[in-house]
Write a structure and sequence with these properties.
- The protein is α/β, with parallel strands linked by helices.
- It has five domains: 4-139 and 196-214, Four Helix Bundle (Hemerythrin (Met), subunit A) (Up-down Bundle); 273-372, 2-Layer Sandwich (Beta-Lactamase), CATH 3.30.450; 383-450, Helix Hairpins; 458-621, Histidine kinase-like ATPase, C-terminal domain (Heat Shock Protein 90, 2-Layer Sandwich); 629-755, Response regulator (Rossmann fold, 3-Layer(aba) Sandwich).
- The chain has 22 helices and 20 strands.
- The protein has a five-stranded antiparallel sheet, with helices on both faces. The chain has a five-stranded mixed sheet with strand order 7-9-10-12-11, covered by helices on one side. Strands 16-15-17-18-19 form a five-stranded parallel sheet, sandwiched between helices.
- Strand 3 and strand 4 (346-357) form a beta hairpin.
- Helix 2 runs antiparallel to helix 3 (92-139).
- It starts with a helix and ends with a strand.
- Mean pLDDT is 76; it is low at 156-165, 563-575 and 618-624.
């Protein structure tokens, strides 16, 4: 439609130009005809004047001068008509010429009368002389005289034979009189002739005709220009019309193609989607067959009804209020809606509701395109149930595994500090290492679950990089010596700096990379370890000259539970989680990892992680000093149902110099809390009769005391820590218990010897 706003004005303007110039050409043609008429009349008048001049050429002619005088008067009347024509033309120059002609013609009329009178007198005298010539000739002997007289009468000049001849007419008075009359009138005619020449109309008519010729030339040029303009405009109009016509044909073809494509799209849409339209009030105006099939309503039952005929009562009103607010603001609305069939059953649709606007931008109707996602929703719900069951299973397994490991690891650690026999100490260290391996495996599985679910969080804090790396590297040197592997460490001496990052995750990355390098390098091989910090990036290099990896293996080693092949698992052991966890951790920390490897020649890993350097190291030193174990003071309530764990926690409390009371479940914890004054509570979660969270709620509501309650539990799945803290616990310690971690959290709430 918009294109006609451009085409129509162009066409109308061109047509107006053509009509204007056609009208102008008609006016010019009329002017040309009028000027030609004026020219014709001017020619006729000029001929008439020329005729007068011929008549007057011989002043002694015997013609009838009455006709000439009458013709001169007629010329005056013709000039009056000529004036009317010229006045109609509004041509000032022609009027000027006509005024001159009229003035001269008025003078000529008088001159013609005078000429007529003079010639009449001359003719009378000549008649008398002719009639009396013979008598005079007989009565006088002087014939020469008579010849002279007649020469004078009939000629303007004397012949050569009479030059110098003087005549005396006194002897013939009558003859003298007539000759004198003829001579006088001849002189008068000569003067009149001079006036005739001065008032010659031929000159004025020539001017008129010349002016008309010029005018006609100008008008002819204008006609030629108009013809050129009309021709050009017509050609343009024809070309423009052809262009528009061709465009219309092309546009029609495109529109037809678009219509066909649109029809195909509509057909495809109708075959796959649920389509409906409503008026601005939500009354259904159109539904397709898919809509009827899914809703179990017929078209007749739906059209004319409000669209909420299929609304399910479970859908909140706020959602529909938001939908109407959105689409009335001329925006598209997308939502998954639960609808109800005619039979009362329900289905889910993924809905896209769009306003349809008119040319003024006002909403005229709404188009809704929906897709049946009932199976998808069912699958999602089943997946949620399955994920919940999996998490519950992992949580239970984690709890069941961590509980015995807590005792094994805890008691082995305590015994290792007491036993002095090297052989027994080696046995205990083996127990600790094995339990740590099991704990590491459980942590890997839980960490991977956290990373993949998106519930993983980083704990950024300040630490001295060199102080963290030094004991860490020493531990790996001991492991390398036991495996007869040469660990070549190149740690930049400039790493005695404070960084802000998550050291726990960094240590996991380094541990996995070094453990892998040592695992796949045999005795006598060398593992290279290098750390560099530069321009805000911490770079970690781990290189070995072990078995290496092919390109195919490199493509899958970062995937969970995958190794080079089954033989690798048999020979070298492991679950295949290490590098997957490293990759996920590096990505979480905004870094990158690069692997270079060749089968049989070893592998090289480079990890780059952004880390901010801190200038003030005092706070880090203070934090590290806080982690030093000093005796604590306080009375602790311990709620733990597992006897082995009770023994372990009791031993840890003795090591921290704390007094304590141990109960077997939440009910006993609530009861004993009201009988004694406790400084802190260590609360297990999974206990008979009353679990830890419910016991905490009862204690807080019944006694109203602000005593810190710490969750001490084997529930270490994704979100468990956050869940306990949100429910009201003041701290969280996972099993197996890290004695250092437990000490730090106890120290946060209890006094130490330094304050005594």
């Amino acid at each position: 439609m918009k294109k006609y706003f451009i085409i129509a004005p162009i066409f109308l303007i061109t047509l107006l130009v053509i009509l204007t110039y056609l009208f102008r050409s008609f006016e010019i043609s009329q002017s040309i005809d009028e000027y030609n008429n004026i020219k014709q009349i001017a020619y006729e008048l000029e001929v008439q004047v020329q005729k007068h001049k011929v008549i007057l050429k011989e002043i002694e002619s015997k013609k009838n001068f009455d006709e000439t005088v009458f013709s001169a008067k007629s010329l005056g009347k013709t000039l009056d008509y000529f004036k009317e024509i010229i006045d109609a033309k509004e041509d000032s120059r022609l009027r000027h010429y006509l005024n001159n002609i009229q003035k001269k013609n008025e003078v000529l009329e008088f001159l013609y009368e005078d000429i007529k009178s003079d010639i009449a007198v001359i003719q009378n005298s000549k008649v008398w002389l002719d009639s009396n010539y013979k008598n005079l000739l007989q009565s006088t002997d002087d014939r020469v005289l008579l010849a002279y007289i007649f020469d004078v009468i009939h000629q303007k000049h004397l012949s050569e034979e009479h030059e110098g001849f003087e005549v005396d007419l006194s002897q013939v008075p009558i003859l003298q009189k007539h000759v004198q009359v003829i001579l006088d009138k001849r002189d008068s005619l000569l003067k009149l002739q001079e006036q005739l020449d001065e008032n010659d109309l031929i000159i004025e008519f020539d001017r008129v005709i010349l002016h008309i010729h010029k005018k006609l030339n100008v008008l002819q040029d204008q006609i030629q220009n108009i013809i050129v303009i009309l021709l050009s405009t017509s050609i343009f109009l024809i070309a423009f019309g052809v262009f528009v016509y061709i465009r219309e044909i092309i546009a029609t073809q495109k529109a037809q193609k678009l219509k066909n494509d649109l029809q195909q799209f509509v057909d495809a849409l109708n075959s796959s989607a649920i389509v409906s339209k409503t008026d601005p009030k939500g009354i259904i105006t159109y539904v397709n067959n898919k809509f009827c099939e899914l809703s179990e309503y017929s078209k007749e039952e739906l059209i004319g009804q409000p669209h909420n005929i299929v609304r399910h009562p479970d859908m909140p009103k706020a959602m529909f209020e938001n939908m109407w607010k959105t689409i009335q603001n001329k925006k598209q609305f997308h939502v998954i809606i639960k609808n109800m069939k005619k039979t009362g059953s329900f289905y889910f649709v993924d809905s896209y509701i769009s306003p349809i606007l008119d040319i003024d931008g006002e909403v005229v109707e709404y188009l809704a395109v929906r897709y049946d996602v009932t199976e998808l929703i069912d699958s999602r719900d089943r997946a949620i149930v399955s994920e919940k069951a999996k998490n519950e299973f992992l949580s239970n397994m984690s709890h069941e595994l961590r509980t015995p490991l807590n005792a094994i690891n805890g008691f082995a650690t305590l015994l290792a500090k007491k036993v002095e026999d090297p052989k027994h100490q080696k046995y205990l260290n083996t127990i600790v290492d094995s339990s740590n391996t099991l704990v590491g495996l459980i942590n890997d599985i839980l960490d991977l679950s956290k990373l993949q679910s998106g519930n993983f969080t980083l704990d950024y804090h300040d630490f001295n990089l060199m102080r963290k790396l030094a004991p860490f590297v020493e531990n790996f040197k001991i492991i390398a010596q036991e495996k007869e592997i040469n660990l070549d460490v190149d740690v930049d001496k400039h790493l005695d700096i404070v960084l802000c990052s998550d050291w726990l995750r960094l240590s996991q990355i380094i541990t996995n990379l070094l453990s892998n390098a040592m695992k796949f390098s045999g005795a006598g091989k060398t593992v290279f370890f290098n750390v560099i910090y530069k321009d805000g990036t911490l770079s970690i290099y781990v290189e070995d000259n072990g078995i290496g990896m092919s390109k195919e293996v490199q493509n899958k080693v970062f995937k969970p539970f995958q190794q080079a092949d089954s033989s690798t698992t048999r020979v070298y052991g492991g679950t295949g989680l290490g590098l997957s966890i490293v990759l996920n951790l590096v990505n979480q920390m905004g870094g990158e990892i690069r692997l270079t490897s060749e089968e049989g020649k070893g592998s090289k890993f480079k990890v780059s992680i952004p880390a901010t350097q801190k200038i003030d190291e005092a706070q880090v030193v203070h934090t590290e000093q806080e982690n030093e174990i000093v005796p604590l003071h306080g009375h602790v309530l311990i709620a733990e149902d597992n006897k082995t764990n009770q023994m372990l926690i009791a031993a840890l409390m003795d090591e921290f110099h704390l007094t304590y009371k141990i109960v077997n479940d939440g009910v006993e914890a609530v009861e004993i809390f009201g009988q004694e004054n406790f400084d802190i509570v260590l609360m297990d979660e999974n206990m008979p009769n009353l679990n830890g969270t419910d016991a905490m709620v009862v204690i807080q509501s019944r006694y109203g005391k602000s005593v810190p309650i710490i969750a001490l539990t084997a529930n270490a799945m994704v979100g468990d820590k956050e869940k306990f803290l949100k429910q009201g616990m003041d701290g969280y310690v996972a099993k197996p218990i890290d004695s250092q971690e437990l000490y730090v959290i106890l120290k946060r709430f209890l006094h130490t010897d330094t304050y005594v």
